[in-house]
Amino acid sequence: MSNLAYDDQAEEGASHQDVAAMQALRPVPRISVQAFCETESVAGPIERAAEDRRMGKAHLKVHMGGVATAIEFYQSAPTPNLIILESRAEPGEMLEQLGQLAEYCDPTTKVVVIGHYNDVGLYRELVRSGVSEYVVAPVSMADVVSVISTIFVDPDAEPIGRSIAFIGAKGGVGSSTIAHNVSWAVSSLFKSETVVVDLDLAFGTANINFDQDPAQGVAEAVYAPERIDEVYLDRLLAQCAEHLSLLAAPSTLDRTYDFDPEAFAGIIDIAQRSAPVVILDVPHIWNGWTKNTLMKADEIVITATPELANLRNTKNLVDMLKRLRPNDLPPKLIINQIGVPKRPEISAADFAEPLGITPMATIPFDPQLFGNASNNGRMLGEMDAANAITQQIAEMAHVLTGRAEIKTKKKPALGDLIARFRRKK
Ligand SMILES: Nc1ncnc2c1ncn2[C@@H]1O[C@H](COP(=O)(O)OP(=O)(O)O)[C@@H](O)[C@H]1O
Ligand SMILES: [Mg+2]
Q1: Is 162-400 a CATH 3.40.50.300 domain?
Q2: DSSP string, 166-214
Q3: In this structure, which topology does domain 2-152 adopt according to CATH?
Q4: Of all residues in the chain, what percent carry a pLDDT higher than 90?
Q5: Choice among 33-42, 242-251, 402-411 with the minimum mean pLDDT
Q6: Pocket of ligand 1, candidates 177, 209, 280, 376: which has the most ligand atoms within 8 Å of its Cβ, to mutate?
Q7: pLDDT at 13 > cutoff 70
């Protein structure tokens, strides 16, 4: 009987005001959503929501089983952008179960709870513990779409995407190659939709590295700023892998590429509203729009090779970025192409010391691995998943999406050693 009653309400809910309310909702971005339901009456509306046109880009999967099933599931799987949990538990028990689940949740994952207790105290406690919304069952399809929309599309909502800008301290240091490989790793490891924007309009290599030849890309967007919205951006993206798309550079010299400082701001903002991770492949140039792009990025990664000019340039970039972004963490540093035969090099420790930054990765020179990958238009992970460099790329994907911290290979300090000896006694 209850199923029928809920369904009635769902149908009714989707008819009058809710349809009107849903008309105003913008399409939901490319997010991944997993729902864990205890009753068909909640699973049904969520499944119907998945079919709504506004949810066309989102990946939504409904599992039967509540919080306990979710805990088991996420012990071995990455958490999506949004988890919807139905729980019939009474407030105290629910909070305890959610606390256990939190241990397995990525910090960026949002959680919506559908409960069966209309309890203001519970609502407050859930919101305080980081739950985005608490909805009391029964729910309609429209409720589900609008809750998701409020979290991810609302003009007041934070753009869902983190933008990560990659720039080289010199040309040819491997900044683009690493940017593309990290993008691929993020999209394949975390099943998180990732958009790569190749900002090197004249010489960009993302199209070669991903073996793509799209007719349109970033140039169409930057020359038609008045047209750019999520729908237009979608048409310009080339699909590179299941969760990875590319806004490719034309890589032609028919025009010269002089832009206003703000030229890419709108495109990047739209991209950030449509995918959780946006990787900006910034060319090694210093002008108004590259400076502006770096200034606004959520995270910056500088790639350098271990030579003096690279160190000088990195130092200048780090100092400038500190001035431009006083309230942000310093950029991340990758020292790349270590061990080129016969080349005198600055050691990683000496390179990092004047910068005051622990490198996120130090990557050896491996012309065979990199050469084979780029000649075949494949990513390192596709060529050789077990390679140590591929593993480093995966670690960087974890760090840059907030899933891990930079590993320090610091030797134990004297204090640590003394403490250890003392313990032995
Ligand atoms: N660790 C490495 N070992 C060998 N070759 C590398 C390494 N990193 C990058 N490369 C190669 O260096 C070249 C320049 O890389 P690219 O990413 O285009 O540099 P940038 O974007 O900094 O100009 C590419 O051919 C790339 O395959
Ligand atoms: Mg490049």
Answers
A1: yes
A2: EEESSTTSSHHHHHHHHHHHHHHHH---EEEEE--TTT--HHHHTT---
A3: Rossmann fold (3.40.50)
A4: 78
A5: 402-411
A6: 177
A7: no
